[in-house]
Write a structure and sequence with these properties.
With 485 residues, the protein is an alpha+beta fold. It is 40% helix and 13% strand. The protein has 15 helices and 13 strands. Bound molecules: adenosine monophosphate and magnesium ion. Residues 265-266, 275 line the site of magnesium ion.
């Protein structure tokens, strides 16, 4: 591996500095970004290194020292330029032309061993020209929460960014939504892209269709490569973005995840999920569950996520109409519902144990399950993990035996809805051969982890950090999340 020269011409042995960075965005010129410098921090304590991502970068975790993380992603030595990306966006339905990377930058773009290009993007790395009144920083709790969300969603099959590292920086921050002063961190996120819907919205707003086209060509080349030679590549790009976004929402809904801030600056042009602020996993199935305390009207509540993402896609059409035929985009958007419902249903059926199911009752089971979850107010995640825990081939013999060993569901005979659900589940189970029962048990276990980061769980690991700087519960929780326990 070639050794990188650092700024002052010293040869570095830091594996992060010797990755093969590509300047895919930088090469487009500074209409899209501003070069910035990182803040200098009084301390650098590595709190999280995501070794499970290193292989994908062609690195062996044993060859990467904590100090390598700190030098690269806490002190930001040896890499230039660092790019604060420009974007606008619709926030809670209102257009905001004053956005952009206000507390982060694009650290670099790296091709992973799977041949795909990934961004390293920072959060909490200091002020930029787009910080407005903000301090450019990320709270430690904000960092902890994003690390946890990304790992949990990843395990649950959501197409998500991940956190590569999180470093405590020794600053005290003041925040209205955390007891303050509160501790600070800088995080590095590995994602498919930091180009947002809002990146294109800005280019439309400043009336630069030439820049939008140049960027869209690059987006297609990098993230929709299979379309490059298609005559209708722009229309196909939009149609695929609709599909990817719709599927992503289906994945969130099945995971019981409420993103909380679905502004268009938080929507990736690759259809990947990222930027986890006030998110929450739902305690019970409640469509109007709202995660952000500042979302007064519940615009981004759990059950609105499909219609909001569809609205975001529809609104994006205005910014792309100079490049993509509006009628093509309109017809592309029509497929949203179908893609969303298919993905959501298929994932819910997996949570019910069925990897593949052709039975005509499958849709009925899906609907009845949702109805039961809604009306019974049983804990959403517990219901499924209890199914996985108590599953038995005996469930084929008699519907009243289904989940009999769990106390989270009504006892047989006490709820018409649950009894109907058991009768249907029993019927479907009997449509499978007995030798497929083990596969159903495995599917239940795979898709329904016992560990779900409901708010009290996050608080329970945060408390020891605050009280006695004890990080052990955080690491144990991450290990459980990553192994699907
Ligand atoms: P978010 O809600 O985290 O997606 O952020 C929305 C916008 O506010 C983005 O442009 C951020 O860069 C910016 N922002 C959020 N927090 C801060 C902060 N502490 N300092 C500067 N900019 C911030
Ligand atoms: Mg954001």
């Amino acid at each position: 591996m070639a050794l990188a020269e650092t700024e002052n011409n010293k040869i570095s042995d830091n594996p992060f500095l010797n990755l093969n960075y590509e300047s895919a965005l930088e090469a487009l010129g500074n209409d899209y970004y501003e070069e910035v410098a990182a803040a200098e921090f009084p301390q650098h304590i590595l709190r999280w290194r995501n070794d499970s991502l290193l292989n994908r970068l062609g690195l062996n975790p044993e060859d990467v020292a904590d100090e390598h993380f700190i030098t690269a992603f806490g002190k930001f030595e040896g890499r230039k330029p660092l790019l604060a990306l420009r974007y606008h966006g619709y926030q809670f339905g209102e257009y905001n032309p004053f956005l952009g990377d206000g507390r982060g930058f694009l650290y670099g773009q790296v091709r992973s061993t799977d041949g795909e290009l990934y961004d390293f993007g920072t959060k909490g790395s200091g002020k930029t020209p787009y910080s407005r009144g903000g301090d450019g920083m990320l709270t430690l709790k904000g960092g902890v929460r994003e690390v946890l969300a990304a790992e949990a969603l990843n395990y649950m099959g959501v197409r998500t960014s991940r956190c590569l590292s999180m470093i405590e920086t020794g600053l005290s921050l003041w925040r209205g939504d955390e007891p303050s002063p509160t501790r600070s961190s800088v995080m590095v996120r590995m994602s498919r892209s930091h180009i947002r819907f809002g990146t294109f919205e800005r280019l439309h707003y400043i009336r630069r269709p030439d820049l939008a086209k140049k960027l869209l060509d690059r987006v297609i080349e990098l993230y929709y490569r299979y379309l490059v030679d298609e005559e209708e590549k722009y229309a196909l790009f939009y149609t695929d973005l609709v599909k990817r976004t719709a599927e992503l929402v289906g994945q969130w809904m099945a995971a019981g995840f409420c993103h909380a801030v679905l502004n268009t600056d938080n929507m990736s042009i690759t259809g990947e999920s990222f930027d986890y602020g006030p998110y929450a996993f739902i305690p019970t199935y409640q469509p109007n569950f709202t995660a952000a305390y500042f979302d007064y009207y519940g615009r981004y509540c759990y059950g609105h996520q499909p219609s909001i993402c569809k609205w975001n896609l529809e609104t994006l059409q205005e910014s792309l109409k100079a490049i993509i035929e509006p009628s093509d985009m309109e017809s592309g958007l029509v497929s949203f519902d179908e893609h969303y419902h298919r993905e959501y249903r298929s994932l819910m059926l997996k949570k019910l144990g069925f990897e593949k199911i052709d039975s005509p009752e499958a849709i009925e089971l899906f609907n009845l399950t949702i109805q039961f979850l809604l009306e019974s107010k049983v804990e959403y995640h517990k219901f499924f993990s209890e199914m996985a825990r108590t599953f038995s081939s005996k469930w084929r013999d008699d519907p009243s035996l289904i989940m009999i060993d769990s106390d989270v569901v009504p006892v047989s005979g006490s709820s018409q809805l649950f009894d109907d659900w058991c009768i249907l589940y029993h019927k479907i189970l009997n449509s499978f051969d007995i030798d497929q029962i083990n596969a159903i048990a495995q599917t239940l276990i795979r898709y329904n982890p016992k560990t779900v980061i409901l708010r009290p769980v996050i608080e329970s690991i945060w408390e020891p950090i605050v009280r006695e700087d004890n990080w052990q519960p955080f690491y144990e929780l991450l290990a459980r999340i990553q192994s699907g326990e």
